[in-house]
Design goal:
Blueprint lengths: L7 H17 L5 E4 L6 H9 L4 E3 L1 E2 L1 H14 L8 E2 L5 H4 L5 E3 L13 H11 L2 E3 L4 E5 L7 H14 L5 E6 L1 E2 L7 H13 L6 E2 H10 L2 E9 L3 E8 L4
Parallel strand pairs: 1-2, 1-7, 3-4, 7-8, 9-10
Antiparallel strand pairs: 5-6, 8-12, 11-12
Helix pairs in contact: 1-2, 6-8
Bound molecules: S-adenosylmethionine.
S-adenosylmethionine binds next to loops.
């Protein structure tokens, strides 16, 4: 039996989420995952969607445990996860994460400077600010505080360029009501653990996304009373 961090809910929801991601991310290349947790999603999605570079992340105290699974997976498109807390200033300014970007073999530039530059990049795998065309996060907004959930969207709005997708999976309330008795019980359990946690209202989250520069594209029902919400970054002013 593996001693890697493990979540049964991840195991249950990864295939239904993957089915939707196949469609949503068919034309994407670089995905940033926030709150990667055990790494089960990152491992599953990177393996099933090899056209993507899946950059996972989590808060500093969780990133080593996340990397246990990612390093064991040893997938070319699954780099080492980076430490990222949505409350850190760099995130709010759109200046994080800094990630290792691989040498771009498709760069056909023929300038006299190109070859030495390419060699340097190959050697150093230059560290640069990640450029992502999609951001994914599962089961995170009800764990972090409401203020952190706001910061999640504000930073995403700074980081992502026009057209990029923001995909969030988890439970949400609608019209101020739980969508099932099990979600109501889950909310009690969450708040006993941490009074700052709690299932978020879809309307509040969507209004925050709007302020951060996103338009809602889809609200997909998922098994076990969860949703998969999809926004698109609008043009920047
Ligand atoms: C229930 S786990 C979900 C993990 C994984 N995405 C999943 O679906 O199983 C919640 C995650 O939110 C992360 N998290 C909590 N506060 C955060 C913050 N301020 N910034 C980024 N991630 C945070 C935790 O470290 C944890 O990995």
């Amino acid at each position: 039996m593996s001693d890697l961090p493990f979540s049964q809910s991840c195991e249950n929801n990864k295939q239904p989420i993957l089915q939707t991601l196949r469609r949503l991310l068919a034309d994407s290349a670089h995905v940033l995952e926030i709150a990667g947790g055990t790494g089960q999603h990152a491992e599953c999605f990177a393996a099933a969607l090899p056209h993507l570079r899946w950059q996972s992340s989590d808060i500093p105290s969780n990133v080593d445990s996340l990397n246990l699974r990612l390093s064991q997976a040893a997938l070319d498109n699954l780099p080492v996860a980076v430490a990222l807390d949505v409350n850190q200033g760099e995130w709010l300014l759109g200046k994080w994460p800094i990630v290792f970007m691989p040498f771009d073999a498709s760069d056909k530039s023929t300038s006299i400077f190109a070859e030495p530059f390419k060699r340097l990049r190959r050697a150093l795998a230059i560290k640069e600010r990640g450029k992502f065309d999609a951001l994914f996060s599962a089961n995170s907004l009800h764990i972090m505080s409401a203020g952190s959930a706001t910061n999640f969207f504000l930073g995403a709005g700074k980081l992502l360029d026009e057209g990029a997708l923001l995909i969030v999976y988890g439970p949400f309330n609608y019209d101020g009501a739980f969508t099932s008795p099990s979600n109501a019980e889950f909310d009690v359990w969450l708040k006993e653990r941490n009074p700052q946690s709690g299932i978020r209202d879809f309307e509040t989250i969507n209004a925050t996304a709007d302020i951060a520069g996103f338009e809602l594209l889809e609200d997909n029902p998922m098994p076990a009373n969860n949703r998969l919400l999809v926004w698109r970054r609008c043009a920047k002013d």
